[in-house]
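Record type: monomer structure entry
Structure origin: computed from sequence
Chain ID: A
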Amino acid sequence: MTKAQDLNGKVALVTGGTRGIGLETVRGLAQLGATVVIGARDAKKAIEVAEQFKQDGLKVESIKLDVNVHEDHVAAYKYLDENYGKLDILINNAGVLLDQENVSLEIINRTSTLPMKVLRDTFDANFFAQIELTQILLPLIRKSAAGRIVNLSSILGSLSLHADPNSPIYTFKTFAYNASKAALNAFTIHLAEELKDTPIKVNSIHPGWVRTQIGGGSADIDEVEGSRTSILAATLPEDGPTGGFFHLENALPW
């Protein structure tokens, strides 16, 4: 992947954009000139964050968008269609890690006893919601001259690395989260192939181990650094990759 390009005239939607990696992705895209729409469950918080960005001279709007609510997906389509008539960049950033309450604690493999509710709730937010929102918004992305879909995955979704006892993530067996990200990666591969003859590029990214509510306080990098791969994938040139899994410029194993 190459360095980010100028985004004047582009419209982006970032789910979960009021904090963490999502917030810094909004900032980074807006600083490149894009009009960025924050989608968040907490509509009041989204408005406050957007207003702060506007005070900094950035073009940022907000909508209520709970990724688990179908009606919010439809409302997002209507808002984007009526105000912009297209969508150039979709960042499927929102997600949850429900396997354990505190990720800073020792991770214990509880695959055989994981409650079905945890598995279903995780897949609802990290997989099914991403697919539904993407499908609903795809007609607007098709109207872009260079549509970009970025799915926030994780290196923990790599089946190859999880099967390798020598890999650095081998012991991080948070089954619901990991499986949902592996499934999201499959969606990336399948959608990218379907759209291979269009200008749209679809990629999964691993932001790194980031100090966020999910990543915990012991993580390697801050949220700004964690947003870099999302921004790179959102700003790929015409000859950039599609159907891949990346951290920065590095391809990761499925």
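Annotation 1: Residues 11-251 form a domain with the Rossmann fold fold (CATH 3.40.50.720).
Annotation 2: The helical segments are 20-31, 43-55, 70-83, 116-141, 159-162, 175-194, 223-226, 228-234.
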